[in-house]
Design a protein that fits this description.
- It is a single chain.
- The protein has 305 residues and is α/β, with parallel strands linked by helices.
- It has two domains: 2-125, Alpha-Beta Complex (Quinone Oxidoreductase, Chain A, domain 1), CATH 3.90.180; 130-295, Medium-chain alcohol dehydrogenases, catalytic domain (Quinone Oxidoreductase, Chain A, domain 1, Alpha-Beta Complex), CATH 3.90.180.10.
- Helices cover 20% and strands 28% of the residues.
- It has helices at 41-48, 55-58, 121-125, 128-141, 158-169, 184-190, 222-227, 281-284; strands at residues 2-5, 16-19, 30-38, 72-80, 92-96, 104-105, 112-114, 149-153, 174-179, 194-197, 210-215, 229-237, 248-249, 255-260, 263-268, 288-290, 293-295.
- It starts with a strand and ends in a 10-residue tail after the last strand.
């Protein structure tokens, strides 16, 4: 079968179309004959190996250990592993797995769902990475409730357009979309109640407060985003802020937080969004003030004896 591979980090010139052996699914996997795949920002980072600090998670410091590329798939099941019971041969499915840019892919069965009859394969392949990121941000991490107000910074891209639509589907009272001038009409068509052109207006200085802020672009200092949210609610980023990290590490190596008298704001260094909870003034008062912010105290580093 044919597959697009890259054995080194670099530009698109590193991609090669090769003839490789057709894979056989493991007991918990499925063989899917590909009909469509989609491109995400993730694919660019995996190809270039950026940011470099993430290369160990990508599988190699100097070169990728897995040369396969692509993560979003849509196609027809051709074979199933011995332990698979959720899908059957002939099912039209979509989901995610490594190696989507090939004639065949072998995703885990648990990472597939049936393709609705009213979706084409092309449309279904555009859903997994962007759609799941948006759903997790609003429902699982943001805890959006019906009637609440939400602001989405970066509403004009793949994840952003899903954020707007899913927020409305979850019953948000008002959805404010922040995007560039070229995406204003797209944001309105996605269902936004109010659209802010960031070249004309700073959303952190006008409007709000909001019950939930999803910073999908990371173009504003996180403390300014948090100041636009209600004191007892959350400001949740899905991309790192350009202002640098604030606070000290929380549980897990990918999340840091800064607690203030008005509540807790957190920023994630991956697409994962972190839930924040209010902090009492007595607990917040233990932090150190720097440039008008409350910074969490860092625990002293232990040394081996």
């Amino acid at each position: 079968m044919r597959a697009i591979l890259s054995s080194r980090y670099g530009s698109p010139d590193a991609l090669e179309l090769r003839e490789v052996e057709q894979p056989t699914p493991d007991p918990d996997r499925v063989l899917v004959r590909m009909h469509a795949a989609s491109l995400n920002a993730m694919d660019k980072h995996m190809l270039r190996g950026t940011p470099r600090v993430m290369r160990p998670m990508m599988g190699g410091l100097r070169r990728p250990k897995d040369p396969r590329r692509g993560g979003d798939i849509a196609g027809v099941v051709e074979a199933v592993g011995a332990d698979v019971t959720t899908v059957a041969v002939g099912d039209e499915v979509f989901g995610g797995c490594a190696g989507a840019f090939a004639d065949y892919a072998t995703p885990l069965a648990k990472n597939l769902v049936s393709k609705p009859a009213n979706l084409t394969f092309d449309e279904a392949a555009a859903i997994p990475v962007a759609g799941v990121t948006a759903l997790q941000a609003l429902r699982d991490k943001g805890g959006l409730q019906p009637g609440q107000t939400v602001l989405i910074n970066g509403a004009g891209g793949g994840v952003g357009t899903y954020l707007v639509q899913i927020a409305k589907a979850l019953g948000a009272g008002e959805v404010t979309a922040v995007c560039g001038p070229g995406s204003v009409e797209l944001a309105r068509a996605s269902g936004a109640d109010r659209v802010v052109d960031y070249t004309q207006e700073d959303f952190t200085k006008a409007g709000g407060p909001y019950d939930l802020i999803v910073d999908n672009a990371g173009t504003r200092p996180f403390a300014r985003c948090a100041s636009s949210s209600r004191p007892t609610e959350r400001a949740s980023p899905s991309a790192p802020s350009s202002s640098g990290s604030i606070g000290s590490p929380c549980r897990g190596s990918t999340t840091s937080s800064c607690r203030s008298r008005s509540g807790c704001c957190s920023r994630a260094s991956t697409a994962t969004i972190s839930r924040c909870s209010p902090v009492s003034p007595s607990r917040a008062s233990s932090g150190r003030r720097s440039n008008g912010r409350i910074r969490c105290r860092r625990r002293p580093r232990r040394t081996a004896t």
